[in-house]
Amino acid sequence: MMPGRVSTTVPDRIAYARDLWPRGLITLSGGNPAPHQPDAVVWPVSTEEVQDIVRAAARTATPIVPFGAGSGVCGGTLPIKGGIVVDLKRMRAVVEVDAVAGAATVEAGIIGEHLEHELNRRGFTLGHFPSSIMCSTFGGWLAARSAGQFSTRYGKIEDMVRRVSFVDGRGELHSVDASGTPDITQWIVGSEGTLGIITRATVTVRPSPERQLYRGWSFPRVASGCEAIRRLLQRNLRPACVRLYDELDSFLHRGEKDHDEGVPESSGPEAMLEQYLSMLTPTGKSVIGEWKRRAIALALNRPELVNRVAGAVLPYAQKGCLLIVGFEGDKGLCEAEARAATVELERAGGRDLGEGPGLRWLKHRYAVSFRMQKVFDAGAFVDTMEVATSWDKLLDLYRAVREAVSPLAFIMAHFSHAYVDGCSIYFTFAARGANTADAERKYDAIWKAGLTAVTKAGATISHHHGVGLSKAPFMPEEHGAAMEIYRALKNVLDPSGIMNPGKMGL
Amino acid sequence: MSEQTGDGGQAGAGGGGGDGNEAPFWADRLVHAVGAAHVMSENGRALVRPGAPAELVDVMRIAGEVGAAVGIGLGAHNAGGIDVDLSRMCNVLYLDETSLTVTVQCGITVEALEHALGERSLTLGAALPPWSRTRTLGALLAAPRASEASPRTGRFLQSCIGVQALLPDGTEISTRLAPRKATGPDLMHVVLGGRGTLGILSAATVRVQRRQESRAAAAFKLPTLPAALSTARKLIVVGGRPADLAVSGTGTLWLEVDGPAALVAAEVALAERIAREHGGEPVPQTPPPRIKARPHERAVPLETVDSAVLASSLVGDSVRVIAWHPAGACVVDSARAPEPPPADAPALVAALKRRLDPNGRLVAWPGAV
Amino acid sequence: MPSPPDLDTSLTYCTYCPKLCRHTCPVSNAEAKETLTPRDKMATMRLLRRAEVPQTVEQSEPLYGCTGCGACTDFCLHKVEPGQALLRGRAEAERDGRGHPALRDLAARFTAKSTEAARRARAGVSQDKRPTEAQIAFFPGCDAPELAPTMLSLCDRIGAEYVSLADGEHGCGGYPLFAAGQFDAFRLHAERMSRQLAGFARVVVNCPACVWAMRTQYREFGVPLAPAVEHTSEFLEGFVERLPIERRRAAAFYQDPCYLGRWLGVYDAPRRLAKKAVDDVREFSRARNEAECTGGGGLLPTTMPDTAHAIAEHRLTEVRQAKVSTVVTSCPTCKRQLDRDDVHAVDLIELLDEATRK
Q1: Inter-chain contact B100–A459, Cβ cutoff 8 Å?
Q2: Contact (Cβ atoms closer than 8 angstroms) between residue C177 and residue C100
Q3: Domain count for chain B
């Protein structure tokens, strides 16, 4: 079966023993590169081969871990019970682009950037731009309910799905339609390999935007910024992107050498990591001042103190919160929306910072991911917690998580992925352990404190990173009695329990 | 009586119960649970109207203990079992005007819900067809129809962000409310569209809309029906989001847009540009004639809108294509009788049903159980 | 362009990177294998150096899954150069006796091929075009020695009769030895070439990889080279307005050779020349600094021949979709990789020769 596309070699087993779960990186930095090795890796090229693999595994009760590109941050693809990793990247055809109906049918294993490139060549965009777009697959997006940076306009991946084909844990192929009753696509999307292997899907695509208009705005407080976003969306405007950085996040965005006011050097939490980096490598090129460097050194060791000081002082000490708002699409609609948004944001107390910050964000929006490396190697760690709730509970959630995590880690946030009825909060936290074991302990404690606060605040524990291994213990609390439905689905689709075992709190 | 599935059809197998004209032996227990005024029993079956979730739980428990099947929205068809009518469970539980969502019990009709929302200048937003206004929210969510969709909100059930429901074994579930989640399968989609066989919806949280700053309507006459269909489809594909959009069998396209004035003007201009590209001309906007009785409906994916519409042999005044949304539309034909309910549940639904409801407690999917 | 971080830092950056450049790597795209992503190849090298994995031939193999195309570097914010670092890893593997099995007799095969190439180049060129010293000499490289007479006759036609053949015992600049991580052999060869080419003022080399190796790596290895080294396209660009064009091809894609483009920064010269001889020079959707490799570099055709072929096939997809039957390139390796029955790969020299013939 599948000559040349089955491997049990040591290098391959090591390569498939990790994903991007930061806890795994802590372990790796401690000198243990591959604690969870699969017994074999296979690369099917067709749905039939996927079915053959699953049937063979079901007969022998061998665990199967479906694998895209391994960019998950929750341990979702770790073969913790051994078995077979099924790497889908050889199933990567753009099967059809229906220009008239705005739909694309695509195999699961294509790398995100390759998919977007192929669509662009045909004059279309998926509008899905996760910061992992270079290193994640279409199937992975579907499996974990991925969100792109432009989700406010284009939706999350589950909003774009029209049809999903998958092979269940018995090796049976299903093709389900989103217009079905019930909508079975929504059972499979987000199941993270526990119910089957997604092999292809049909999704909505849009013509490449004729126009992009991005601007920066400044708001005095997180609360007023959030309020402005809510009003934009509830007045029927659909920005491609809205991102509001909290006071600390905005503050760290602002390098002294920046001439544009309130302009991010780069985007998102990477700014903080940039600061970390420059602190950990005193010789490294740095734009930050000595006093800021000292503040961050203190932050690592006494997070609570600094978080408190930062929370109390920053709103007064500096220039408020940065909001990036971008519109794109049909030229006429895009320009009209941007005009209407300007009126609305001014009415909400915003100060227009011009196109600079917006374009800068657009240009550097993937830079985040390049900043992690040194943090881990220096014994520190950084991770992100992306949670979501309705507008009425949003600020309570923001405060609750900050309060819970502050004693343990340095924490900051931005608000992105806004919807008519609510918004996600993207917390970035960082800390350092005395050694590997200490770092792991601290890491676990932070997550426990953070997610317990999230659940208590009535919010969801994940907006788009998924559950995998790291959030599995929090699933019973997240779903309550409805977990019974998930277990029933599992039993129906994967009666022998071979699909990605040990994940998702099943 | 309140209709949840709205589809009628034959009942499945009933559970225990008496014979002849007698009330079933367990009718007293139902009276005890929901009060005599809300139980009607005869011919070995009962109709109950629980007034609160706790009463619904009691009804389910009694049904389990006596082995009676529970049907929701089945009317007289659930022989030997318990018909549940949720019309008393029609309260607005929480109106969140900040997040623009409403949590409401599922026995409320669309009409009543719109009335309640209207008092706060809110609306469901989705342009629901007039023949859906007498349906209950539970019916809309459990047995959705193709016509219940709009360009902006998609299919109506996509407006739903959370549910409270009872599983067949009586377990109460309440899904977590968030605008989007990535915590596994979206479990509410087992009950949504489940036609009452996988669980009974007791309450749901759905998105609502505030009345917008300005509103406009426009109409265009296209030379042919295919040209009108292409215009509508193009408008959807390039990202137009009218509040409502319809195409008549004779090639007229209507749309309604709302939002900030600048956006409203741009949306109408976009529609006009696309219509002109297809040989169309603006015509004075008169609302399309109202379809009074429930017409025949057929869902068509966007990919095959033209062939599906043109294939219906008698394209003419009675045909209209409505409920356009990013993935499809709905062809309605007022000259034809409403379509029969689907005969069978998809195989996966049936398999899940066997798992969640091994004793066949919930019997609402006509012919499937 | 900023210089890359030192080797240790580079390995660390890659090890903790979320594989951000993986989508650019021709080898990991063709193989669809995590083990062969730039991140994992670099992580493997780091683990080998830290002795955290077995020191075996098998464990060292991923180090050879690289064409050196540099696409990953172009994308990397830190400008890490896996295409260079991995060659150091190969050298360490060689040193420890865990080098790639397919490269075991490379040195001998190299010498045979290099001298045979020199012989073939010489055989096609008349005596008067083979001085031992001259202002400008042409060095065709070991993959296409047959281009020597073509180039020299083209030079005659465009008024550069003074160009002669860089004649000598060897016909290769030594890139294959360098790519194999056989650094000692490479240094010896560089010294040999330094002597062989000492009499010329300028050498026009047709192999981009050898242009790069001779320009930058001879010096790195402490070997002086008297003549200035330039690529054929750079030399011919000086004649672009004087080409006596007689006929033009209708349409052709232009393939950027990785070493010519990303490593030497030459993008426009070959395009300007090609446009003289082709009505419609098509661009790949990924071109210039984003151009995809054709799989011929880094000795991949020797270590992973099927993968090298698959990479080339992938590159040909757009050509076939466009129903174009010609690809112009300026690299003998790219030409060899892309030439098929249905798609004809043409070296810039051949293209201009054909276009200028009466």
Answers
A1: no
A2: no
A3: 3
